[in-house]
Design goal:
Number of strands: 4
Number of helices: 14
Distance between the termini: 107 Å
Largest sheet: 2 strands, antiparallel
Strand content: under 5%
Oligomer: single chain
Strand order of the largest sheet: 1-2
Helix content: 55-70%
Order of helices and strands: EEHHHHHEEHHHHHHHHH
Number of domains: 2
Length: about 260
Amino acid sequence: MTDVADRIGNVTRQRYEQLVTRAKELIAQVARAQFALGDMALEIEPMRSVGGSMPNGTDDLFTVTESLQMFADDIGVERRTVEDWRYTANRWPEGRRKEGVSFTVHRILASVADEDERWAAVEDAPFNPRTGARQWTPDGAQRVVGQRVDRPVTVDEKVQAVADLTRDDEVAAQVATDLLKRPAVTEHVTPAEKVRVVTELTRDDTVAQQVTTDLLRRPAVARTAMRDDTTRMLVNRAQFDNSHETRDRIRERTPAVRAIEHTIE
């Protein structure tokens, strides 16, 4: 009986390796086909400089978009796919295309602006820790050009992925609430950042009043706070204002008090 550890999906590891080998052959064929289609699109509509005209100087009967749309319709694909083939084929002229590297990787690396850097980049495949070999993957190519990867690995990549997923304020609020409930998370937040977060969360006066009341009920916090001259002065001023407000309310509710004060005066 075959050990489960020797199976990948529903096939044995040996069969899996056979399928990978065959798949690589097919991917190479697909890449050649996609580059050939890109070359055809380039023949129909050569790449032009911004504001440039046709190389032969003749007037256009169709716009670039119209020509590529017609080509896409006639071969049964989306125009964006044709534009993708055309762009990649233009960035990787024949003779610079790396055999064994997928069209997808070529397309990602096409964003390297400098040609010499682009030619050098495709020759320097990154190390894949899973396979223990140097090989191209879409994520590896995206790291080279500084794009967001599909499967984040490093802390920076994971942070970027979270940032992208929490652009919606409602989602961000829920995620932040859940994270702040994890003690292990808050332990890694610096005191300065904690102060900043608390400040942001207590901009609402009602929230600030409740938080301040709760904090001053902690003797150690109250003692430390009262050592600050400004804080102590403001607390004393608040006590005076509260006493003044209390006296005013008593005068309004109890006419006899006003009469007594008038008599005293």
